[in-house]
Write a structure and sequence with these properties.
The chain contains three helices and four strands, in the order αβαββαβ. With 93 residues, it is α+β, with helices and mostly antiparallel strands. The radius of gyration is 14 Å and the shape is globular.
């Protein structure tokens, strides 16, 4: 089993043990400011009614994103992490 699939397996178990679904979930990401990562993330969460807060880094090279959205299942949360992981330079917190 790959490290990535092991990580998602542990995350799902943790979410199912500690969370009652549906739930308001908070995603946090850091993206390079100049690569269009914010737009890509916005597109991924667009159809869910997400509230997205942004904060530029002191140097302006990165943007911090906090996304609050109602998620129906642990699998739905994991699916969003997987979608976002395809964005170049993104860091999931």
């Amino acid at each position: 089993m790959s490290k990535e699939s092991e990580f998602y397996k542990k995350l799902k178990l943790s979410l199912e043990e500690t969370t009652t679904f549906p739930t308001d979930y908070m995603f946090k990401f850091i993206v390079p400011a100049d690569q269009g990562g914010f737009k890509k993330i916005e597109d991924i969460f667009n159809d869910l009614g997400a509230v997205i807060d942004t904060k530029p880094s002191k140097t302006g090279k990165y943007t911090s994103l906090t996304i609050r959205v109602n998620m129906k299942t642990a699998d739905a949360i994991i699916e969003k992490y997987k979608e976002v992981s395809s964005i170049e330079g993104i860091i999931s917190l």
